[in-house]
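Entry 12.
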Amino acid sequence: MAEFRAMSDAVRQLEPKALWGRFADLNAIPRPSGKEEAVCQWITGLAQSHGLDVSSDDVGNVLVRKPATAGMENRKTVILQSHVDMVCQKNNDTDFDFDTQGIRMKVDGDWVRAEGTTLGADNGLGVATMLAIMESKNAPHPPLELLFTIDEETGMTGALELKQGWMKGEILLNLDTEDDREIGIGCAGGIDLGFSGQLATTAPAAEHGVLVEVKGGSGGHSGMDIHKGIANANKLLVRVLREMMLYSDGSTPVELSSLDGGGLRNAIPREARASVASGLSAAEWSQKLHGLVADIQAEYRTTDPSLSVSFETADTPGQVLAAAAGDTLLAALDFCPNGIDRMSPDIEGLVQTSNNVARIALKEGAAEVHCLTRSSVDTEKMDLARRIEAGFALAGMKASRGGAYPGWTPDPDSEVVRMMADLYRELHGHEPLVLACHAGLEYGILGSRYPNLDMVSFGPTILGAHSPDERASISSVHKYWAWFLESLARTPQRA
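Predicted 3D structure (tokens):
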């Protein structure tokens, strides 16, 4: 506990202290997606302690209203928005319970990191920014509505269920961008795809139990990082298993028993494992597929330098998939598109359509696969979804859809976009990056519910989001905070 307090105190001493202090407070409260009640109650209590108008809606979003500072009453009302939940990922060797423990932070040069877990800077720094301005007595600002949404990371429930007419603001500043050079003006829509089936099983004919494991992938956000070509552990595991089956014959069968890979739909899988019964031992497979493993590591030496594939001795499984069922499942997984499907023809460097094979699971013949399909063009999103569904239909698996959300069409000439770009040039002497991103962001949904909002997204630099390597730049937070305060001070007047 003393070590935890020391870590937290080191973060609290960073500038701006008002922001970092509230970030430390926030990270002391467990806030996995779907379990935000405690943090929302804390925010509500803070607002009430300052005599501010605060309310909640039916799903748990919190809205705080703060009057303008003196002389700013005639400015447009600004909505500040961030989500309170965080992605909960940890290294396999890290002992940590996200439901009960606060994040263990440390200062490492210009970075704030966590000990073996995600940091929660996504979107905790945005939340902390809002709390800091909520409590500020000196910073000039227009009338403010501070919207704290829930469950962004797993379903964007808070945004999707936000009732119309609750907010009155004209400008929305979303604080969930992860590069301090960027002004976000558009985002992709997405849809969750699920596939399930009960596959035929039998007793194993092979004598050896082998655990095949892919680990050490870099991971990352399945939208923002999809263009980097980061290894998908699920797809690589399937590649290795199919290669094993090519080696097998009647005397050395390979029989698939279980699969366990990936996790959250919006995270590129870093680890995946399979249990097989085999006519060859783990040591023999390690020798036979040495060349394949070396090839895979060479292919991903830049993006995933720590990637490994291992074969370990394990207990012989009690049951395995029937040969035809195993072949069909692996073929469907191998066929399933992953990564970029199409780049934007209109915006250079923007991924337009993609898919992430986020989760695979097989136990006692029950198979499940989960994908997140994204596109800034809704028709392309649905076309890719249908293609993916067709592949799994051939494997006899039942498809389901859920969690669909819209994108946000960019408007580079809007008043708030021009204001934020002008401020950036004035403060930093060079051009900002005004762009759309390949991620499902809440402001796309909020814009569909409040179509007259003038919106942008910005934030401090965060690297490695959605992975235990997540880290926030200290100097960038300082840069972003000045930009944020100036944007409020220069909010346009009402018409």
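Annotation: The first strand starts at residue 53 and ends at 56. Residues 231 and 299 are 9 Å apart (CA to CA).
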